[in-house]
């Protein structure tokens, strides 16, 4: 698709696929593309299944309040409220904690390790609990909730997805309410949001929306990326090369190579002319970040994993006003996780093939069991 038509209309789904890097970059900050697609982004899949609401609204009312699904000024106002949590100084302040958690998770003397269950998932869960101000003991609850909400974002034409997604959001808001009634660490996300609510800046629903978004974005995408990064390195047979690479550079290449968020949706609010195509107002547009990151017109040998590749820009965290707020924190978690694994096992291979499962429209890397030695399976 990218080679033939980097911007292509799909007759069956009645939406546009954008697969070229330059086209994707341009559209991600285009003023006539709205991020509020859940408000009116129904597809023929929804019509056939009777999903969504009569006015075309999708997902749930709470998700539609997430600032990632809002345009300015609502987006700017909500993002600005929590932006201090992810400043460079605040992220740097989490370094000792992240390093300590990684060392603890890797400290057991064992023959093998499940990168997902033993490292990526508990690490991401404990970090996001710290950011929010929640007890670390709650971390195990986050994975099933995050997965059910992730499915809601891509397959809300399926009744089971809607039921499970709404139940997960209800569980999240119940947990948030409990936390708001107790003592919260000063400077935590929930402490900040509670203060803003008490000062009349936001409503309780805004607290629920922002906190649930941070759970989803801070946990699911980061844990998935750590697992995918290890899988990519072992599949490419380049674990030894990782030992000689600058870890910051390697993580950027891994984000380009197989990022967690493969696509983002937008809704056209006006006519857009791009790549010889005419996107009409009201059209749904899927910007395929993962495919754009493999565009040979921008990246030399894009399907080759090169830990020393110097990347000036990729779309792993999006682009423009909606660039991922937690990008710095996600990078830090991935770097410490990979460094910890590299130190523990200078040689590494799959003990068994990576195991994935389908979860209502999304592919979950369920188990990634590794052991010392080489080459990979």
UniProtKB/TrEMBL annotation:
InterPro entries: Cyt_P450, Cyt_P450_CS, Cyt_P450_sf. GO terms for molecular function: monooxygenase activity. The keyword Hydrolase does not apply. PROSITE patterns: CYTOCHROME_P450. Gene3D superfamilies: Cytochrome P450. Keywords: Heme, Iron, Metal-binding, Monooxygenase, Oxidoreductase. Pfam families: p450. It comes from the Bacteria. This is Unspecific monooxygenase. It comes from Streptomyces alfalfae.
């Amino acid at each position: 698709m990218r080679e033939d038509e980097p911007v292509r209309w799909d007759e069956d789904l009645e939406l546009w696929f954008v697969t070229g890097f330059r086209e994707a970059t341009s559209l991600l900050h285009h003023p006539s593309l709205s991020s509020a697609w859940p408000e009116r982004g129904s597809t023929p899949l929804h019509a056939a299944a009777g999903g969504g609401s009569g006015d075309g609204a999708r997902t749930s009312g709470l998700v539609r309040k997430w600032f990632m699904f809002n345009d300015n000024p609502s987006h700017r106002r909500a993002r600005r409220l929590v932006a201090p949590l992810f400043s460079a100084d605040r992220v740097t302040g989490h370094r000792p904690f992240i390093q300590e958690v990684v060392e603890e998770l890797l400290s057991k003397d064992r023959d093998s390790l499940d990168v997902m269950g033993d490292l990526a998932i508990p690490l991401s869960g404990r970090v996001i609990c710290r950011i929010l101000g929640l007890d670390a003991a709650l971390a195990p609850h986050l994975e099933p909730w995050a997965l059910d909400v992730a499915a809601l974002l891509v397959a809300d034409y399926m009744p089971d997805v809607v039921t499970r997604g709404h139940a997960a959001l209800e569980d999240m808001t119940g947990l948030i309410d409990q936390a708001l009634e107790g003592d919260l660490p000063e400077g935590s996300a929930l402490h900040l949001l509670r203060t803003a609510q008490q000062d009349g800046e936001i409503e309780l629903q805004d607290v629920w929306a922002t906190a649930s978004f941070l759970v989803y974005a801070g946990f699911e995408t980061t844990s998935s990326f750590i697992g995918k990064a290890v899988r990519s390195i072992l599949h490419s047979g380049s674990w030894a090369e990782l030992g000689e690479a600058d870890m910051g550079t390697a993580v950027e290449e891994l984000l380009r190579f197989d990022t967690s968020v493969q696509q983002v949706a937008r809704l056209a609010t006006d006519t857009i002319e791009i790549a010889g195509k005419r996107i009409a107002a009201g059209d749904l547009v899927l910007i395929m970040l993962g495919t754009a990151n493999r565009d040979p017109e921008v990246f030399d040998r894009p399907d080759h994993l090169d830990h020393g590749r110097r990347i000036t820009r990729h779309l792993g965290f999006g682009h423009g006003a909606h660039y991922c707020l937690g990008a710095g924190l996600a990078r830090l978690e991935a770097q410490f996780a990979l460094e910890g694994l590299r130190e523990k096992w200078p040689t590494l291979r799959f003990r068994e093939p990576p195991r994935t499962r389908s979860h209502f429209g999304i592919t979950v890397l369920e188990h990634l069991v590794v052991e010392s030695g080489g080459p990979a399976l």
